[in-house]
Amino acid sequence: MVALYAAVMDTITTYTGLSPAAFFTILALMCVVYKTVCSMFVDPEPPEDLKNKLISSSAAASAATAANFSNQTMIPETVQLGDVTEHELRAYDGSDPNKPLLMAIKGQIYDVSRSRMFYGPGGPYAMFAGRDASRALALMSFDPQDLTGNIEGLSDSELEVLQDWEYKFMEKYVKVGQIVSEQTSKPTKNGDKVPENQNHDGA
Ligand code: HEM
């Protein structure tokens, strides 16, 4: 046993050129450095009881986050409105959080609730909510006078701009109805595409 110990010490000295004491000191220091560096990258395992607490509190936290998230992003269910006058559409401008946010282009009404950040109160395009914004969109105008579905007198290129907006809306939002004129309660001349499958009572 003593012979083996002496042989190991001799080998260390022969191969490293260090005394056994120096060799083991350096080895111990290397272990400490290794452990320290590793602990910088790996989370230490918490004790069992703390671990359980952490699991339950993180579940509560993520449920709270999810609830918060769904509260913040709660979007009223899309409801088909059918025929609505321009005046009635105004009620859907986002001032009542229980109502969907609606906006019309060329007489067709879209549910834009999912883009509350654009059209909701305080949003950059809040002025379009509850309106047929055809003229404003065609002219790329924020002038309140252009907040109308009246597209008379627009040039071909302006109508083309409006068409692009309509395609964008058709692709992105659900159509929920169409604007009808107050007197006749018939689709307006701007409402050129009245879908047959919608609640259209012809009143
Ligand atoms: C300085 C000029 C403008 C800038 C920098 C700008 C910028 C933007 C940006 C970054 C978006 C978000 C696009 C997306 O994420 O889908 C957006 C959306 C929109 N912009 Fe503008 N905009 C400008 C002018 C206008 C004007 C003049 C109008 C119309 C009068 C307009 C109408 C809209 C509408 C309606 C949306 C929302 C579209 C949707 O519902 O997805 N913008 N704009």
From TrEMBL:
Residues 189-203 have a biased composition (Basic and acidic residues). Residues 84-180 form the Cytochrome b5 heme-binding domain. GO terms for molecular function: metal ion binding; steroid binding. InterPro entries: Cyt_B5-like_heme/steroid-bd, Cyt_B5-like_heme/steroid_sf, MAPR/NEUFC/NENF-like. It is found in: Cell membrane; Endoplasmic reticulum. Residues 182-203 are annotated as: Disordered. One of its GO terms (cellular component) is plasma membrane. Keywords: Cell membrane, Endoplasmic reticulum, Heme, Iron, Lipid-binding, Membrane, Metal-binding, Steroid-binding, Transmembrane, Transmembrane helix. Its main location: membrane. The chain crosses the membrane at residues 12-34. It comes from the Eukaryota. Belongs to the cytochrome b5 family. MAPR subfamily. This is Cytochrome b5 heme-binding domain-containing protein. It comes from Citrus sinensis (Sweet orange).
